[in-house]
Amino acid sequence: MGKLSILSASLFLSFNLFASGDEQYQITKRPQWVEPVELGKDRITLDNNGYYYLLADRQSNTVTSSHYYQFAIKVYNSEGIQNMSNISINFDPSFQRLNIHEVSIIRNGLPIDKIKTDPIEIIQRETSMDRHLYDGSLTATINITDVRVDDIILYSYTIEGSNPAYKGIYGGFSFNFTLPISKLFTKLIFEQKDSLILKEFNNPDKPKVKYSNATTSYEWIHEDVKPVIYDNNTPSWYDPHPSVKYTNYTSWKAFALESLSNFQVSGEELKNLKKKIGERFDSGNKAISIEQAIRFVQDEVRYLGLENGMSAYKPHLPVKVFDQRFGDCKDKSLLLVCLLNLMDVEANPVLVSSSQGLKLENSPPSPDIFDHCIVRFSYEDKDYYIDPTISGQGGDLNNLSTPNYHYGLNLRKETESLTELPKYKIQPVLVEETLTLDDAGFGDATFSVRTTYKGLSADNQRSYFSRNSINEITKQYLDFYSNLYPSIKSLDGVKLIDEKRNTDNELVIDESYLISNIWKKSSDNENLSSLELYPLGFESYVNINGSSIRTMPFYLGKAKYEHKILVNLPESWQFEEITYAKKDSSYNYSLNGTYNSRKKQIELVYSYESKKDDLSPTQFVDFIITHEDIMNNISYFLTYDSSIAKYKLSYLSIILGVIIFSIGCFASFKVYSSYNPDIEITNPKNLAIGGWLILPAIGLCFTPVRMAFELVNSDNFYDANFWYSHFLNKDFKLLALITFEFLYNFLFTAFSLLVVVLFFQKRTSAPLMIKILYAISLVITLVDNFFANQLVAGVQIDFKSIFQSAVAAAIWIPYFSNSNRVKNTFTVRLDSTLSEQKNS
């Protein structure tokens, strides 16, 4: 954040703006109304930075709209000479006149006049070009020659004039800065009839009041002014300087009415604008038409400000802005207001401060406290606030986001005071990283990242992507991740998915990478490798820089962030569940780590919410301590020991599987030979398998094949480390579930083979066995899904498999119970089967 600088024009200028003359500058004598001031003492200070202000003299005369400044700076070394030998004075020639009175050097007590020997150059610097603002101001520069150590540089000047956009008197003074001053003299002269309101901030000294004829003057004299040393990351609104503001605006209503006059548009101008736009925003749906007008002003009218003279406060006519397709915040706001008014939507401009919004409530009315303009409109009995300078904004009317400007001045005839603006709802940023490892302990990995932004964060990202090429962004992202993975390479670049811009204002960024040799070998143990899991993006939220010892508030900023890391492992892993949380009134933080044995997947979920914009110095002490602890615990290391972690065949599982399958086969044989029901009907037709029976025939044949395939490919069942790791993790409930699945798969495979044999032999026992098979399949699917969902983190209920099992049971159980085709097909009893075998 930029702080007051002794060199900046705003340091000693009152906040008034000034009137013009025909010449760019003049060399004149000091005005008669200026009170002479002696230099301050030369005080030795460690804060002088090679130079020291012996005097800072500023005197403002509101009667003549004149502002006088005198500075005396002593230089102590070459750095001081380098920094202070060039004088710069800014002014706006469209309504200001610069009068230079003195430029000299005092050496050994004797003055050396430099105003005649050192040339004065006028340049146009446009210091706000990077923000697309051009104010037309000029800078008078004087490069003072032959400056030596212990010289005193002395110069003075007056700037005359006030901006004609406002007729009121307003301004202010601060009484200390970021550099020390030996003597600070401040004087304010105004006519007694003006009845100035003087508002004090941070307990400044009381002025000395003098009366002379029709004028009153306030004087402040400060000796040995100490500098203000700012702590890092202070809020933009924070201003510890003792200061005063003055104004003759008696109320916000009076100021709002004068400001509103700058935004007046004639009926003829509105008619011309209506002709220009035609039916461009006539969608037949007012809400959509409003959105179209907002998008047009935000995206098709570029932001560019030509703000010299009255243009600093008075917008250009909307037809001109529409035709030229550019304008500053005032121009774009007035154009949008007019477009909405033409739709019979009530709308008006709103003056705001982009960074000092929280200070407005205590500020007296004046133009200098506002630096931005937005729009309020009313639709279906609800007020909306829109910033027309935000290009690429998303969301429908219910999802439009405006930054927190805190307070604003509605430019309406009804306005009596400032309006507290709606607070923007913080939307979480969601990051999901997926790391898929080729092998354990060595090899490469694929790395994908999906980040979801909503609201203002989506708008900011959309703007970022519009300003930069995909190649540039991909390079920046690669540089970011290379801090953790030096061998990372991009696979498909960075992809922007913006399908919900016009509705929920959600934007998704997808990234994919290849990381070579992701594991790091231990230098002490050749069998040991490690892999660090670290949420890089998360670090910016919890890594707090700076000392815990501070005297000023700390800017935190409200935010919500969730960072999920998924690691797909090539084999089973021993993992201890992680639950870690910290919170207080300013933040919430949690880390949860789980392991999904079915997917062989580790999941780490980091969640953080900062709940305050700012922290007091005392709050910050505990805050930084807890966040250091958080930072020390956000890494997670996977460790692989190749000497013990390789896949180990579980002979016990194989032997147990063979035994269970044998038991299943034996039981199936017993059912085959002993269960031999009679034929249900007399004179059966002994039909061949056909008709609808073809469908269950296919399914029944596929069932033992599928079961056998799952048994063969279920590595976990035969991996001793799998069983051992779950035993060490004390996952006894999960072990019970897996053991049940293991036993069930072998038994069900044997039973499904029995059903297939009975089916194709057309045994009378087949219909009942088939119904039992479908019933068991449904029940086990339900039970297995329920317990897996309860016992295994991240496992969702497989509604598809439940639906398939339920549909199969609902169709075929009744069919095999009631179908005549079934009764006329499954007519073979065991004794007839044996007799057929004997005859053959």
Notable traits:
single chain; 840 residues; alpha+beta; nine-stranded mixed sheet; eight-stranded mixed sheet; 19 helices; 31% helix
N-C termini distance: 100 Å
Helix count?
Answer: 19
Q: Mind summarizing the main beta sheet?
A: 9 strands, mixed
Q: State the shape.
A: elongated
**Low confidence ranges:** 1-22
The computed structural class is alpha+beta
Report the mean per-residue pLDDT as an integer: 87
The total strand number stands at 37
Helix content: 25-40%
Radius of gyration: 40 Å
Summarize the topology.
Elements: H1 9-12, E1 25-27, E2 51-61, E3 66-75, H2 78-84, E4 86-91, E5 97-107, E6 110-113, E7 120-123, E8 133-134, E9 138-143, E10 152-160, E11 170-174, E12 181-191, E13 197-201, E14 208-212, E15 215-225, E16 243-247, H3 252-261, H4 267-277, H5 286-300, E17 302-303, E18 305-306, H6 318-324, E19 326-327, H7 329-342, E20 346-352, E21 372-379, E22 382-386, E23 407-410, E24 419-420, E25 429-437, E26 445-454, H8 456-467, H9 470-481, E27 488-500, E28 506-515, E29 520-521, E30 528-533, H10 536-542, E31 554-555, E32 559-568, E33 578-584, E34 587-596, E35 601-610, E36 614-615, H11 617-631, E37 636-641, H12 651-674, H13 694-713, H14 720-728, H15 732-760, H16 766-791, H17 799-818, H18 820-825, H19 830-839
Parallel strand pairs: 1-5, 2-12, 8-18, 17-19, 25-32
Antiparallel strand pairs: 2-3, 3-10, 4-9, 5-6, 5-10, 7-9, 11-16, 12-15, 13-16, 14-15, 20-21, 20-23, 21-22, 23-24, 25-26, 26-28, 27-28, 29-30, 30-37, 31-36, 32-35, 33-34, 34-35
